[in-house]
Amino acid sequence: MSTGDPERRGFVLPLLLLAGFRSLVDDLHAELARQGHPELRPAHGFVLQAVGVTGTTASDLGHRLGVSKQAAGKTVDRLVTLGYLERADDPADARRKLIRMTEKGVDGLRRSATIFDALRERWVGRLGAERVAALEDDLRAVTPPDSFRLDVPGWFGS
After folding, report:
1. Residue 134: CB atoms within 10 Å
2. How much is the average pLDDT of 77-106?
3. What is the pTM of this model?
4. PROSITE patterns of this UniProt entry (predicted)?
5. Which CATH fold would you assign to the domain 9-157?
6. Where are the alpha helices (DSSP H) in 5-99?
């Protein structure tokens, strides 16, 4: 049931959530650029998270991201060129290559975490700690417990 208030129409909520996400991510990348990572893009963050600290294969990476092995490989190629990832022999299977983060990749993820903390504090400064905590609690209440998924690039593309 619609309230009739144009600011409270059903389609506005996902747009506002997306705008909030976009605002945080844009601010993150502006600060990452100032801190020495101007080439990182939003999709790269999902890839670095999916690679993780132990590394992965191109097939597993594609699966985690919800994209084809070829699409994942293209992004990996770019991040290898930029120095964020590297390919290495898999000690468990000589036929496979592992994709691993370099120190530069780890630095980018560490800085991202710190910057996101600062951006959250900026929201706290504007909205108050209680409102930000309530927003987070409310979003947890309406999303599945396993809602953090890395397949957003594939989900947007499908």
Report:
1. 12
2. 93
3. 0.85
4. HTH_MARR_2
5. Arc Repressor Mutant, subunit A (1.10.10)
6. 12-34, 42-51, 58-65, 69-82
